[in-house]
Amino acid sequence: MQSYKVKEVRVHPNFRAHGFYNDVAIFTLDGKAKYTDYVRPVCLPSTEDDEFSLVGEIPTVTGFGATDYGGRESNILREVQIPVWRNEDCDRAYIQPITDIFVCAGYADGGKDACQGDSGGPLQLYKNGNWVQIGLVSFGNKCAEPGYPGVYTRLTKFARWIEANSIP
């Protein structure tokens, strides 16, 4: 197991806690991770992928968060595959505007999604033989509630900022 401390946190300059707009940050570690079968760099989408419609895709979200609302965090890494919604449908579910900086995913009947403790975790899509991180867990209505998909920060909208603020 590898363990590192966070040396620096770079929060997006336009982050707004109310509404979770621009909900993305970069953490710099105090050491360099050793690549193994279980530790490797993530593939990020390019800005050109922004036009690629994710609707109908079934990405995977992973995390150690609670398995039900108000529950305890998991001791093991969990994963679930959830379908992407049209942003227009997601917008009708939530009071706040769901703009193009978000991607929504989950089942209309609920039951499967990210939960408390998963925030900041990856939403990934297996594409062309690689896992590509398309989103970050941002918010939702409780956990996997019927009619309320999870809302994720859409990384194509932040690819340039991530690249400009990452250490090579």
UniProtKB/TrEMBL annotation:
One of its GO terms (molecular function) is serine-type endopeptidase activity. Its main location: endoplasmic reticulum. It holds the Pfam family Trypsin. One of its GO terms (cellular component) is Golgi apparatus. It comes from the Eukaryota. It is an enzyme of class 3 (hydrolase). This is Vitamin K-dependent protein C. It comes from Artemia franciscana.
